[in-house]
Amino acid sequence: MSETKGPVVWTSEVLVSVNVCSLSDLTPQCFVKSRTMTRDVMANRLCEALKIIDGCQKKIAELKATNDELDEVSIENYDVSMKLSKKLEQVKLESAAKLVDLQTKVVTLQDDLLAEKDRQLTELRNSVIESVETTVKEGIKSYSKVVQESCNAPSSAILQADLKSVVKNVVEEEDRSRSFMIFGVKEETGEDIGVKVNDVLLQLNLKPKVDVCRVGSGAKSTPQDSADRRPRPVKVTVGSSTIVKEVLSRAKRLKDCSQFRGVYLAPDRSLEQRTEHKKLVVELKKRFSDQPEKRHFIRGNEIISVEKRD
Known about the structure:
The protein is an alpha+beta fold. It has eight helices and six strands. It has helices spanning about 5-15, 30-35, 40-150, 155-175, 195-205, 225-230, 240-250, 270-290, and strands at about 180-185, 210-215, 235, 265, 295-300, 300-305.
């Protein structure tokens, strides 16, 4: 079986055999006039043409099948694309809802933060007002007492001295409201007491700006004497009485730390206040002995006794 010619080759050979240059010039008379176009040649050319037509039809069928397959793939891809588009739109909507929710939470947190700041400022203001009122009241009481006592005084110099004493006491009381004492901090030669105090405060999760110093005489002694001698207390001054209250309220946490178990904190008391506090401590020890079934503690300037919890 001879190989089927392609349409282009077959058309070229036919045009050459009838002496025609292009299909546009081809007519039936061209075949009649051509001497080479015999009946046998025409039959062969017709067979070849039928084969070419059959091949083209098959090719068209293949192309149609391929096109149908491509259409199916396109439809599938379109369906997938639509599903992805819907999914993307859903994700966008969900993301937008989550964003709105997060923005709402941020606004709520900001409101809570502002409320907490307002609360802290109110507490600080009330504390300052209370401290000032207490100081002023004590100053007025002392001033009134001085005035009353000085009414019969023979000299105005005595009144002036008493007034100076009242003012001094008021100023000292205000200074003490911003200070507290630390007892039991080991004392060493060449020590950096500021670092030691900061270590104690860090144990209470606090880091205020402080001014510190040892209280009491620091006479020279041998290393053995320093080891045997009780360490001098440390006076710590901070920015406000509010910080002092916060420090003292957390002081009980030190007993849970082995490093600071022998360290304790107390308010910065005047000589009169220390005398009164010693009396309270003596009375407290007596109650511990007389009423062991109860729990006793000092609050303010009095001893509180309550039943122990089971």
